[in-house]
Amino acid sequence: MRQITPNSTVGVFGSGQLGRMFAIEARRMGYRIHTFSPESGTPTGQIADAEICAAYEDLDQVKKFARAVDVVTFEFENVPSICAETAAQFAPVHPRGEVLHVAQNRLREKTFLSKNGFPVAEFRHIKTLEDLRNAVREIGIPAVLKTAGFGYDGKGQAKINSAADCREAFRQIKNQEAVLEAFVDYERELSVVAARDAAGNFAHFGVIENAHANHILDVSFAPASVSGQTQKEAVEITRGILETLDVVGVTTVEFFLTKGGKLVVNELAPRPHNSGHLTIDACVSNQFEQQLRAVCGLSLGSSEFFRPAAMANLFGDLWENGNLNFAEALRNPNVKLHLYGKQEARCGRKMGHLTALADTAREAVEIVTKARKNLTAK
Ligand code: AMP
Questions:
Q1: Could you tell which of 266, 268, 275 is best to mutate to test the pocket of ligand 1, judged by most ligand atoms within 8 Å of the CB?
Q2: Are residues 241 and 351 in the same domain?
Q3: CA distances from 15 to 34, 159, 277 (A)
Q4: Structural domain of residue 156, as residue ranges?
Q5: How many structural domains comprise the chain?
Q6: What is the pLDDT of residue 90?
Q7: Pair 190, 171 in one domain
Q8: At what angle do helices 287-295 and 17-28 cross, to 10 degrees?
Q9: In angstroms, rounded to a whole number, what is the distance separating the alpha carbons of residues 311 and 55?
Q10: Domain end: 182, 200, 226, which one?
Q11: In the chain, N or C: fewer CB atoms in 10 Å?
């Protein structure tokens, strides 16, 4: 693979906070950034050298965008695959379109995982209400119905607690093609953020533990409080997935750890991940630098942690009663603030995050959640 060195231009499909943090790393290392999305004035656009505002389906604009850059990546996996395929005619695209294709559809993703021997919850393909009723009979209850495409942060999901819930659950997901999966009675949610370069080298940030609120990631910390054996297994499963998919770039594997100590893959994100934001302040080469190095054909950096760390998301809800008390939140010198440049603070919208480093992950969680609370102190 050709090495794309500083001063070259990296194109990013998508323009949210992930693209923004990627662009900050790329600029630090002397690269130029072009971003492509249907919006303007975006979190990524504010940092990029050029912000192209067009529909992903506008293939003439996609071609123009790809011609003007040295390599293309994406920060958002729901970019239509035709968009990645078209760009690939003019510039290298990493991770390749096939990775995107698998990860943007739950049915394809789960089929890929189970076919290749990776642990997933039992699942069935659902096209009709009758399929759903049969699947509930086979898998049992509780179960979770999820749309096959375009789902994230618990959107497009309905829990089924009894056979009588089928009709309402199917209606809730608007009768779309779906996957029914067994409910996992998990003890913890974990993720492994990992990178793979073009030569097949692999780097990872160990196991990160995640706590959700309303199905959206709320707090992450590392290292996770799990056994050494579980850490090893999670990393090996992740390595296997990246190798099988031949990923060049960063991919995140989200896991459930069952009460019996078994790891189950929940989903894949073929990109840096919210749970990996703590690597910006806590690691030698953070997840965005690893992404940049991999897609540019450079070798990976060290993903070593300086200290245990925790991250708390800042949702739009925090702004409900006006401006925030940033001075109070930053009183602790170990707290770092990241804001994504979003103008409108809507409920549930990810506006930024706080990170803290400490001697233990538990202490880092305490510091970061206290700092978040202090944001609304009078
Ligand atoms: P997802 O959008 O698939 O990441 O799901 C969002 C959240 O819903 C997860 O973080 C879990 O808290 C919950 N969830 C999803 N699938 C399952 C499952 N099969 N069993 C139990 N909880 C689930």
A1: 266
A2: yes
A3: 10, 32, 17
A4: 122-182
A5: 3
A6: 98
A7: no
A8: 70
A9: 33
A10: 182
A11: C
User: Position of tokens 């031949």?
Assistant: 246
Shared-domain flag, residues 236 and 305? yes
Identify the bridge partners of residue 12 per DSSP, sorted by sequence position: 35, 73
For ligand 1, the distance from its centroid to the CA atom of residue 138, given in whole angstroms, is: 20
- Residue 151 pLDDT: 62
Is 165 found in the same domain as 77? no
Q: Measuring CA to CA, which residue among 17, 121, 350 is closest to residue 214?
A: 350
Give which of 300, 368, 302 is closest to 334, Cα–Cα: 368
Question: Cβ-count burial of 33 within 10 angstroms (0-12 exposed, 13-18 middle, 19+ buried)?
Answer: buried
Residue 253 has which token pair?
A: 């594997």
Which residue ranges have their beta carbon within 6 Å of ligand 1?
121, 144, 151-154, 181, 183-184, 189, 212, 215, 266-267
Q: Do residues 225 and 267 share a domain?
A: yes
Residues 190 and 176 in one domain: no
**Alpha helix ranges (H) inside 159-227:** 166-172
How far apart are alpha carbons 251 and 245 in whole angstroms?
10
> Mean of the pLDDT values across residues 58-80?
96
Q: Are residues 360 and 219 in the same domain?
A: yes
3-state SS, residue 272: coil
Alpha carbon of residue 187 to chain centroid: 21
Give residue 68 CA to ligand 1 midpoint distance, Å.
Answer: 40
CA of 365 to the centre of ligand 1 (A): 22
- Tell me the CATH number at 146: 3.30.1490.20
Out of 123, 124, 183, 215, mutate this one to test ligand 1's pocket (max ligand atoms within 8 Å of CB): namely 215
Task: List the CATH number of the domain containing 85.
Answer: 3.40.50.20
Q: Are residues 199 and 286 in the same domain?
A: yes
Closest atom of ligand 1 to CA, residue 106 = 3
Q: Do 37 and 14 meet the contact criterion of CB atoms below 8 Å apart?
A: yes
Q: Which atom of ligand 1 is nearest to the CA of 264?
A: 19
Give the domain-ending residue among 93, 109, 141: 93
Q: What is the pLDDT of residues 86-128, one digit of tens each?
A: 999 999 999 998 999 999 999 999 999 999 999 999 999 999 9
Q: How far is the CA of 47 from the centre of ligand 1 (A)?
A: 33
- pLDDT at residue 364 in the model: 98
Residue 1: its pLDDT value, please?
A: 80
* Identity of residue 210: N
